[in-house]
Design a protein that fits this description.
The chain is an alpha/beta fold. It is 39% helix and 17% strand. It is built from 17 helices and 17 strands. An eight-stranded mixed sheet has the order 4-3-2-5-1-6-7-8, sandwiched between helices. Helix 14 links the parallel strand 14 and strand 15. Helix 1 crosses helix 5, helix 4 packs across helix 10 and helix 4 packs across helix 11. The longest helix is centred in the first third of the chain and has 18 residues. It is globular and about 55 Å long. The termini are far apart.
Length: 460
């Protein structure tokens, strides 16, 4: 039975202060804090929430992006491209690194606390009665802001999976699935095919879909679903490939790219310089072509500018982000097997270029990660400082250190990322490298402390 909701007008005596509204929002359990307990599968409650708000998701065009890895980067690249084409652009991604408004952006600007408070005041009758999840609330908040701001198009990133994700109430102009690998297996399934079926749930009737990587196990799932929906499907890795890349110590990179359709070769620069972008750039280029098919005036100049300034245009943080130069200090929120493999590849690329002498790694993870898959990927030639993300799901640093020792990784334990980075700074010299990662929440802790200048006497 469908939820029945009636929009409610608040009286003046129900007015919430900005602080009260933010506290109420942040009191809702979020996945990044408590894991699966905060996950509400299915779209019925979200559809009811949208009816309560007057169906805001129907008042703007959208692009829907899912995938195990790369969906955040592709979402930001796509939003940067839309902005380069002169469109007023919304962007909804998760999780946030520093403050919740980062999840909802219009033309690169994060949603203000005042706008969040205004939404919460209007939404409280529904929230109190139907108890939506934190992700459902922020999804509704994004739809509401995009509609009220009159965005031309919004890029909407899924939270988990796709079929049962709260964002899957939109009818997008284009669906994008970056890739499929094993992550969140307790929720999405423990095989690539099972996870692919969940992500294929964002494919809508008569709507083009771009798939980033044509893995044999998952490709058949996407082809079958697209055929069922009469939706043309494009596999980006059959159109483009990155044949080489040069990473720079400022965080940017050059990507040598080839069109597999005509053999044309060209170089693209991006301020998203992580090694993983060699997979995301073909997906982005295929997205650009499908948008051109839909009438968007997009050409090579717009594509080049969008990539060169993707992070700057959209406010993306935590993706191979260079925090300091002496010593070279980098953070990256790659947190699963595929993401960490790419991070290590990037570090080893820099090592081969003699970009640093000694390597220090500040590392922390959440408790539900499979350490038997992650720890063997990490470089042995490094000094480790193990710590714990501040979320309740964070794995005890001592437990992590013991597991790491069993994998041949030696290091010390520090209570939080601030103390861990101070320890890395104390041990390192100007020609060394410090890397901080293992969890997007650890990187979020870092960015919050960095912005708040809470490293005391630390000078990098």
């Amino acid at each position: 039975m469908a939820l029945v909701v009636v929009p409610v007008r608040l009286n003046n005596h129900n007015h919430m202060t900005t602080r009260e509204a933010l506290d109420r929002l942040l009191s809702i359990p979020m996945f990044q804090q408590v894991g699966g307990a905060a996950y509400n599968p299915g779209t019925e409650r979200m559809e009811a929430f949208c009816r309560f708000l007057g169906r805001p998701q129907e008042r703007f065009r959208s692009i829907h992006v899912a995938g195990t890895n790369g969906k955040g980067s592709v979402s930001h690249m796509t939003a940067a491209l839309l902005a380069e084409c002169g469109l007023k652009t919304g962007l909804y991604t998760s999780p946030h690194m520093r403050h919740v408004g980062e999840r909802v952006r219009v033309d690169g600007g994060a949603m203000s606390e005042e706008r969040i408070a205004d939404f919460m005041e209007r939404a409280m009758p529904f929230i109190d009665e139907h108890k939506p999840s934190f992700f459902e609330v922020t999804t509704a908040m994004a739809f509401d802001l995009f509609a009220s701001e009159g965005v031309d198009v919004a890029v909407i990133e899924t939270g988990l999976g796709g079929r049962l994700d709260a964002t899957n109430v939109i009818n997008p102009s284009l669906s994008v699935i970056t890739n499929v690998s094993l992550d969140h297996t307790a929720i999405l399934g423990d095989t690539v095919m099972a996870i692919a079926m969940e992500k294929a749930g964002i494919i809508k009737p008569d709507t083009p879909v771009v798939v980033g990587q044509s893995d044999p196990e998952s490709a058949v799932v996407f082809i079958d679903k697209a055929h069922e929906c009469r939706s043309p499907v494009t596999f980006a890795d059959k159109m483009y490939r990155v044949t080489g890349y040069e990473c720079r110590t400022d965080g940017s990179a050059l990507f040598e790219t080839e069109s597999l359709l005509d053999g044309y070769r060209f170089t693209l620069e991006s301020d998203l310089g992580g090694a993983c972008q060699r997979y995301n750039i073909p997906t982005f280029l295929a997205v650009a072509e499908r948008l051109a098919d839909k009438g968007l005036e997009v050409g090579r100049p717009q594509i080049e500018r969008a990539l060169a300034h993707a992070a700057g245009t959209t406010g993306l943080a935590g993706r191979w982000q260079v925090m300091a130069r002496n010593p070279l200090t980098v953070c990256d929120n790659g947190h699963n097997e595929a993401g960490i493999r790419e991070v290590v590849s990037q570090i080893e690329k820099l090592r081969s270029q003699r970009a640093f002498d000694r390597l220090f790694i500040v590392f922390g993870v959440v408790a539900d990660k499979d350490l038997t898959r992650i720890l063997p990927l990490l470089p042995r030639q490094a000094e480790y400082i193990f710590t714990r993300p501040s979320v309740s799901r964070g794995l005890d640093a001592g437990e992590l250190a013991r597991a790491a020792a069993g994998a041949g990784l030696k290091g010390v334990v520090m209570p939080d990322v601030c103390a861990a980075l101070q320890e890395a700074s104390r041990r390192s010299s100007s020609g060394d490298m410090i890397f901080i990662g293992g969890s997007s929440y650890l990187v979020g802790d870092l960015l919050q402390m960095w912005d708040g200048n809470r490293f005391g006497g630390l000078s990098l």
